[in-house]
Amino acid sequence: MKAVLELTNELGGENYVLWGGREGYETLLNTKIGREQDQMARFLHLVIEHAEKIGFKGQILIEPKPQEPSKHQYDFDVATVFGFLQKYGLEKKVKCNIEVGHAFLAGHSFEHELAVASSLGQLGSVDANRNDLQSGWDTDHFPNNAGEMALAFYYILKQGGLGKGGFNFDAKVRRQSLDPADLLHGHIPGLDTTARGLKGAVALIEDGEYDKLLDGRYAGWDNGSGKDILAGKLSPADIAAKVHADGINPQPKSGRREYLENPVNRFV
Amino acid sequence: MKAVLELTNELGGENYVLWGGREGYETLLNTKIGREQDQMARFLHLVIEHAEKIGFKGQILIEPKPQEPSKHQYDFDVATVFGFLQKYGLEKKVKCNIEVGHAFLAGHSFEHELAVASSLGQLGSVDANRNDLQSGWDTDHFPNNAGEMALAFYYILKQGGLGKGGFNFDAKVRRQSLDPADLLHGHIPGLDTTARGLKGAVALIEDGEYDKLLDGRYAGWDNGSGKDILAGKLSPADIAAKVHADGINPQPKSGRREYLENPVNRFV
Amino acid sequence: MKAVLELTNELGGENYVLWGGREGYETLLNTKIGREQDQMARFLHLVIEHAEKIGFKGQILIEPKPQEPSKHQYDFDVATVFGFLQKYGLEKKVKCNIEVGHAFLAGHSFEHELAVASSLGQLGSVDANRNDLQSGWDTDHFPNNAGEMALAFYYILKQGGLGKGGFNFDAKVRRQSLDPADLLHGHIPGLDTTARGLKGAVALIEDGEYDKLLDGRYAGWDNGSGKDILAGKLSPADIAAKVHADGINPQPKSGRREYLENPVNRFV
Amino acid sequence: MKAVLELTNELGGENYVLWGGREGYETLLNTKIGREQDQMARFLHLVIEHAEKIGFKGQILIEPKPQEPSKHQYDFDVATVFGFLQKYGLEKKVKCNIEVGHAFLAGHSFEHELAVASSLGQLGSVDANRNDLQSGWDTDHFPNNAGEMALAFYYILKQGGLGKGGFNFDAKVRRQSLDPADLLHGHIPGLDTTARGLKGAVALIEDGEYDKLLDGRYAGWDNGSGKDILAGKLSPADIAAKVHADGINPQPKSGRREYLENPVNRFV
Q: Which of A244, C106, C167, D107 could form a disulfide with C66 if both were Cys (CB 3.0 to 4.6 A apart)?
């Protein structure tokens, strides 16, 4: 770590990704999970300490992954990483590098992991390789789903971009793809897909209807009692009294999911 | 069954789908699987016998589904249904009605089930509802993936259409979607997605490059020794002797997967 | 194949397992699935032809597996293999070698695959290695679940054993298990687990209550109208007329699943 | 919440479980995930505020569950809950109620969730119902796997018990199980399985070999340089210098997984 971090710094690297290839367990039977967390946190403190010492200004990133090669990786998904970082006071020092396929293997959509990370201030960089939808291991395919990329860019643009982070393909051509040209035929549409996703997200945001609908759904909490509840001004007893006094009886409103799929599909 | 089949006939119905809602087991512990197969086959023979007796000219269809409500449905997927039909001499009398989401729950892509069914003469009709990619139960969403539909139509068009079968949505709006308008907002993009998929498949076939590449991959088996092997003219000993005599040493060729994704993505 | 089959014969081998390591597709986009089935069937005919020519008296076995290394293996599970064998007239010549972990990866329990195979006359041999329950790839662990083994032996004993087939471990110690002794510590409990399962199945059958309960569930079909229906003596019209005339209104009966788990757990 | 919490208090209840039946999203498209977390945290603060006000001395518990009825529940698993609680300063006020089947649906073993929760001080109570291993939805079966229970009790006993928490079955008999007696046949073996698991865990701990082996694996970090590293006394530069000076070259040691499975299996 020391040597590679120094090398990254000398080369002007702006990101240092801790890929969790061995940071998990093969079996709980030989594992003290709390102790391993403590030790992993210590290691991470050493990384940060050394980065600061040598003047590295880039991002330190953890790449969430649920399993493989171990049965259970400690960096299972963004929410797990965030809990770990907070426990050891590291959440301001480390961000996440999110991979499409790792999200899928953890039981999440790619946009879920981005939305979660962004809401927690943890969205630092992206590995764009997707997973086969029927394979239970990490397949590292090139991107070919522009809609998935558009939703990803939506969250990235809404937070003002990735800063020092970026979009990386560490995708691979398939075992059957033996020709040098296959590498080009993988990368070119991968880039085209990414570009098409970016353009879709820009169009979605510029159109504005989607954000307006989304904001509208939460508008009731922006003033009046809703605002007071969120500000901690009302106790359960206050709220109950108010409900009884004013005869408050909120009616369910449609989530309008099908309607919302339209602007998204239109711009991709 | 008797009453509904007669009603279907009177109404001019062209398809009679046997949806396997209870045709499976909750636990193997109380199940004799061979006996249940025999009984299910007898029932199917009764259906066909009655259909013929009343002059029903439509298709009899089984809808493959891997699970839910039972733990294991006997009509798990197309390949399973085909094995069952053959065992009881029913494979010429019954076809499959394939649902996008059921394919996914069985561990297959939608196009896989269509390709398998078409190759076996079993592709009779389609339920277009897809599944959520992260939910482990049958979600019956409206279609919203034009690329998935395009690959489906490719197989349908290549076999000359669905005959008496068709495209059905038995999709549902979500639990949160409470307004009557939500029904429209589900159906309209579902139809648009389907139409976009159909147009993509037509364009892919009319362009012709994809089929040419695909045919090319198997061309070596259309003549010479390849043809003789498939025709059963050469024994293992003949083949081995020929390999040694002629110094045959086939070199692996690229599967060109990444290249093939291009025409498909271009037309969708 | 020719050379290895001859060698197997010379060494007195009684089983020849066709492990489907490459018999599947990486992507449907470069695959004609019907054509590949035809070619695979031709190959299988060549295997059988050569086995007969050299006088090999052992079993020819296919090992079902859903995926890995390919995205989709053609021998997905027992039901799929059986459909394939029937289509090409091979179901009397080839049986299945069933692996615990492959069953799990295909979305089935181990006992499911044994029950299905046995009911179809396809249960020829067993690979006893299980899968990790949280990993999405083939892990080949040693057996350590005696209950799972007991249910397996139940089906094997009920069909009179595996004939020329047997129980094989092609299990592996884990990557972390570096010592020669680890090999022993994997094999010994694997064998103990298998033995404990066998003893449990014997006890379950000798006790007799379980089989009696299971037989009882289907007893209503062994005589009277039930028997006539299964024998094809009654048409749907006959059955409907009888239901109306006799006021037949069958009441649901408990499947008694929880009760049935008791004898099984007691003997394991 | 206010009324039920007061009722719980009056009845002398010692646990108040927040079961997250609607605390998730159906689709990210209509969801601001950060905002919903803030609002959920506010609600939880109201619960705690009211509990303290009325003098409720019991535990407040969250029940992790990954999905169903929503596509994504915010209380996905223990690690996710812990991250959420920390963010809002609630980790000392709220613990987890862990369900066997929810752990499985989240991609974890039951013992994993217990081990994680215990290491974080979050293990408060248990729902003992397991899931079917092949079903993708919450099945709430009665416990029937004593080995799984033994590993659970190991973690519970090692932390000194569940305190005010307990073992709950909110398991259900299956849809086919119609008789009143089926309820008994579900509960009795469920309790027996639990008891057998407890006895196994006690025997495993009293025997002592397992804990000795487990402690031994980490012993190298309890003194010397290992201890200094964990105590933060050595910087990366110090460690690198020491490695070079002393020629430290640690050799991999076997994880002895297969050996460790023996004591566990022996006592269950």
A: C106
How far from D221 is each of A27, A195, B105, C131, D49, CA to CA, in Å? 20, 49, 46, 33, 42
* Tokens, residue B33: 């699987």
Q: Are B76 and B62 in contact (CB under 8 A)?
A: no
As a whole number, mean pLDDT of residues A244-256 equals 94
Cα distance between residue C70 and residue D140, in whole Å = 35
Contact D101, D138 (CB under 8 A): yes
Global pTM value: 0.97
ipTM given for this complex: 0.97
Residue D196 token pair? 């057998």
Identify the three-state secondary structure at position B116: helix
List the single range of A162-171, B233-242, C103-112 with lowest mean pLDDT.
Answer: A162-171
Residue type, D200: G
Quick one: average pLDDT of B179-186? Answer: 94
The one-letter amino acid at D7? L
B137 with D136: Cβ contact below 8 A: yes
Average pLDDT of adjacent 10-residue blocks, chain C of 268 residues: 97 93 90 97 98 98 96 97 98 98 98 98 96 96 91 97 92 91 93 94 95 95 95 97 95 93 80
Q: State which residue of chain C sits closest to B261, comparing Cα positions.
A: C29
Convert chain C into a string of H (helix), E (strand) and C (coil). Answer: CHHHHHHHHHCCCCEEEEECCCCEECCHHHCCHHHHHHHHHHHHHHHHHHHHHCCCCCEEEEECCCCCCCCEECCCCHHHHHHHHHHCCCCCCEEEEEEHHHHHHCCCCHHHHHHHHHHCCCEEEEECCECCCCCECCCCECCCCHHHHHHHHHHHHHCCCCCCCCEECCCCCCCCCCCHHHHHHHHHHHHHHHHHHHHHHHHHHHHCHHHHHHHHHHHHHCCHHHHHHHCCCCCHHHHHHHHHHHCCCCCCCCCCHHHHHHHHHHCC
How many C-beta atoms lie closer than 10 Å to residue C52's C-beta? 11
* Nearest chain B alpha carbon to C84: B83
Q: How confident is the model at residue A266 (pLDDT cuts 50, 70, 90)?
A: confident
Encoding tokens for residue B94? 């019954």
Judging contacts by C-beta atoms under 8 Å, the chain D residues touching residue A151 are: 28
A68 vs C contacts (CB less than 8 Å): 135, 137
Report, as an integer, the average pLDDT of D32-46: 97
Measured in angstroms, the CA of B90 and the nearest CA of chain A are apart by 30
What is the average pLDDT across B61-82? 97
| pLDDT of residue B20 exceeding 80 | no
For residues B40-61, average pLDDT: 98
To test the contact with chain B by mutation, choose from D22, D27, D178 the residue with the greatest count of B C-beta atoms within 10 A, namely: D27
Phi then psi for residue C25, to 5 deg, are -125, 150
* DSSP per residue, chain A: -HHHHHHHHHTT--EEEEE-TT-EES-GGG--HHHHHHHHHHHHHHHHHHHHHHT--SEEEEE--S-SSSSEETT-SHHHHHHHHHHTT-TTTEEEEEEHHHHHHTT--HHHHHHHHHHTT-EEEEE--B--SS-BS---BPP--HHHHHHHHHHHHHTT--TT--EE------TT--SHHHHHHHHHHHHHHHHHHHHHHHHHHHH-HHHHHHHHHHGGGSSHHHHHHHTT---HHHHHHHHHHHT--PPP----HHHHHHHHHHT-
Q: Count CA atoms within 13 Å of residue B11 on its CB side.
A: 10
Q: Which structure tokens are listed for D105? A: 């649906």
Check if A262 contacts D (Cβ < 8 Å): no
Tens of pLDDT, residue by residue over D142-191, are: 998 899 999 999 999 999 999 999 998 888 898 899 999 999 999 999 99
Q: Are A64 and A81 in contact (CB under 8 A)?
A: yes
